[in-house]
Amino acid sequence: MSVMVQAENVYKSFGHVEVLKGINLEVATGEVFCLVGPSGSGKSTFLRCINHLEKVNAGRLSVDGQLVGYRQKGDKLYELKDSEVARQRREIGMVFQRFNLFPHMTALENVMEAPVQVKGESKATARERAVKLLDRVGLGDKAGNYPTQLSGGQQQRVAIARALAMEPKLMLFDEPTSALDPELVGDVLDVMRGLAEDGMTMIVVTHEMGFAREVGDSLVFMDEGVVVESGHPRDVLTNPQHDRTKSFLSKVL
Ligand code: ADP
Ligand code: MG
User: Fold this and answer.
1) Taking burial as the number of CB atoms within 10 A of a residue's CB, which of 17, 45, 71, 117 is the most buried?
2) Which residue's alpha carbon is at the smallest distance from atom 21 of ligand 1?
3) Is the ipTM above a cut-off of 0.95?
């Protein structure tokens, strides 16, 4: 089993507020790793550390065997140059609660943008892939639509296609369905389920326990910056061991 993400004793504070207090976890390559917990427990902060949007204060965080943001020589750590950070970042796709599509670009242009601008890919190649990706997320007929001409669920599927266009080895989802009307949630989860079936490594922060149970390979329950409990989603969800997990699940299940 190869490891895609490893966190060893990861700490993160904002000023005097300690948000991550020694996170230890491991995400295997190809697995769907669900991260659940109450609001404010540090889930987003943890994802943001993986994707270089925040820097950890202590501990080791690595993706695919490489330290995030650092190189190790002997027992010394050196910060990576901006270009090296950019290279690490482009291998990770992230989907947020709010879709953040470029409003002045069509769905197709949104999906083409990063490969052309960041990777210097030709427009023809980027367009060909974008068309396929929009098809894959069920929006083949919406390529020419602007974000305002799409529902929230459709925008979120474009956002997923846009992240996939960079051919990431890891996808991070931060409550991707929380901002959607209930009837639009299913289509987004179906796209994520398809990605999982294709073997994508995914960390999914979600309150959709049905998705976690059916699609997840592992589930971690986090509270107040620590991992309280982890295991197979079915085990944790049906037989939680800790009071904090039980109390949380009684509210979301
Ligand atoms: P979750 O995603 O589990 O709801 P977050 O990671 O968003 O939790 O937040 C955890 C805690 O960290 C919260 O108390 C939040 O207010 C704080 N926090 C997050 N980002 C910042 C920031 N940039 N500056 C200060 N505090 C922050
Ligand atoms: Mg969050």
Assistant:
1) 45
2) 14
3) yes
